[in-house]
Specification:
- With about 80 residues, this protein is mostly beta strands.
- It is about 0% helix and about 25% strand.
- A three-stranded antiparallel sheet has the order 1-2-3, with no helix packed on it.
- A hairpin with a 2-residue loop joins strand 2 and strand 3.
- It is globular and about 35 Å long.
């Protein structure tokens, strides 16, 4: 994969407690927050491509993911 198409953000998460993560995509930009703290933002042509339907969560060890919600924001909230 080209370096211009992916980016890693290091962030230490305290284990054994629940955390809230938000991934927001606006146009060609993706932004991530964890527990309401901005972790990173990345822009790349193609993020907004209409055929993109995959979002991957990668962790270096082990994680449980629960209660996932995916929705489109109304134009007034974008």
């Amino acid at each position: 994969m080209l370096k211009t198409k992916s980016k890693k953000f290091k962030y230490k998460i305290e284990p054994s407690i629940w955390h809230s993560a938000t991934i927001k995509i606006e146009g060609d930009t993706i932004a991530v927050t964890v527990d309401d703290k901005a972790i990173g933002k990345f822009s790349s042509s193609g993020i907004a491509h209409p055929t993109i339907r995959t979002l991957r969560l990668a962790v270096p060890k082990q994680a449980s993911v629960d209660d996932i919600k995916v929705y489109a924001l109304p134009a007034s909230e974008k």
